[in-house]
Backbone:
């Protein structure tokens, strides 16, 4: 069997619900109970909350709905690949950018090296969240890529609203927030220029049912299950909706750029009219957040009036004096 296939088969069995004994799993997969016990440890290391009860066997602490490649490919054909265990879906597409067609998607259940901006870790436990990336060849070139992460963020929040999920907001430039906690992040990366065009990979990680005991996240976080009306959400359908949303947002952006976009962003800005600080290396500036301008720069009102700030090195935080 391939490297992770036993663990994946165990997870498929556990995802059905109920208890599954080591013996039953071992017989099903043609391995010993000791081997099953070892694989369960590996599954726990992927961030899955699975426990054992003497005499009954193993059970998941929370229900898990796995992604299904057939369901996804019924919608998108070979454009979408599901690779359950991966280093990073962004890296996977970046490595293959030369042979991909715009709109190609990679999804995963677990990322061993999921990443955020500036090489920070994106914690990616198995089966609990969504990790997806889309390749896009942007004819407008690299300079247009900054606006793109803003446009994608707005499109995703609006898609959630259409599903009846209210209260998800945006943090400039690349995060989705719920009740002042980070729900999702967007990461736009480039694999170099193809003539004037840019080879882009747009990645999104969205927490759906992340176990409360998940370790390694250095700031408050939320899961989509915290939002009202998410009880009946189907994980595969949500993935399909978000892939369609991403595709549409990129197509629109190619046609219209940021035109008409400021109002849409400002309606959803989590920090609009609130005191914030912008951190730029050793420098910090505090003021009141006034949303964004047509170039996608964040606007900060200080004693000097309203100033705009743009660039990948800027971090926005709530200022303590709220
Ligand atoms: P900024 O982008 O403004 O600098 P940021 O802190 O959100 O701020 P990012 O690089 O965008 O930084 O994202 C990485 C941050 O996200 C880290 O603080 C990390 O602990 C946190 N993080 C990692 N995984 C998750 C996750 N699954 N859910 C929420 N937050 C996460
Ligand atoms: C951020 O907030 O800094 C962006 C986080 C982006 C995480 C996603 S998960 C899918 C894709 N693959 C990665 O390694 N990162 C992005």
Residues:
């Amino acid at each position: 069997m391939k490297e992770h296939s036993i663990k994946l088969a165990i997870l498929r069995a556990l995802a059905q619900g109920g208890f599954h004994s080591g013996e039953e799993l071992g017989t099903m997969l043609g391995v010993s109970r000791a081997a099953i016990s070892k694989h369960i440890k590996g599954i726990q290391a992927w961030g899955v909350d699975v426990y054992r009860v003497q005499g009954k066997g193993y059970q998941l602490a929370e229900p898990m709905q796995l992604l299904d490649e057939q369901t996804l490919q019924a919608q998108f054909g070979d454009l979408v690949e599901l690779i359950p265990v991966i280093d990073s879906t962004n890296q996977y597409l970046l490595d293959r950018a030369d042979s991909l067609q715009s709109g190609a998607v990679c999804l995963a259940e677990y990322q061993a090296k999921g990443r955020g901006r500036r090489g920070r870790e994106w914690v990616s436990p198995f089966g609990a969240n969504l990790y997806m990336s889309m390749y896009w060849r942007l004819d407008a070139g690299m300079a247009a890529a900054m606006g793109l992460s803003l446009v994608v963020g707005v499109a995703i929040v609006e898609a959630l609203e259409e599903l009846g999920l209210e209260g998800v907001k945006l943090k400039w430039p690349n995060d989705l927030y719920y009740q002042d906690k980070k729900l999702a992040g967007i990461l736009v990366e480039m694999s170099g220029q193809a003539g004037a065009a840019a080879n882009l990979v747009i990645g999104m990680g969205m927490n759906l049912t992340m176990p409360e005991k998940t370790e390694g996240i250095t700031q408050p976080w939320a899961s989509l299950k915290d939002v009202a009306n998410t009880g009946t959400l189907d994980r595969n359908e949500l993935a399909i909706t978000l892939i369609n949303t991403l595709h549409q947002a990129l197509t629109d952006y190619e046609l219209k750029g940021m035109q008409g976009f400021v109002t849409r962003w400002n309606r959803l800005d989590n920090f609009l009219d609130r005191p914030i600080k912008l951190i730029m290396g050793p420098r910090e500036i505090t003021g009141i957040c006034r949303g964004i301008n047509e170039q996608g720069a964040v606007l900060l009102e200080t004693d000097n009036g309203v100033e705009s700030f743009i660039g990948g090195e800027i971090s926005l935080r709530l200022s303590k004096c709220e």
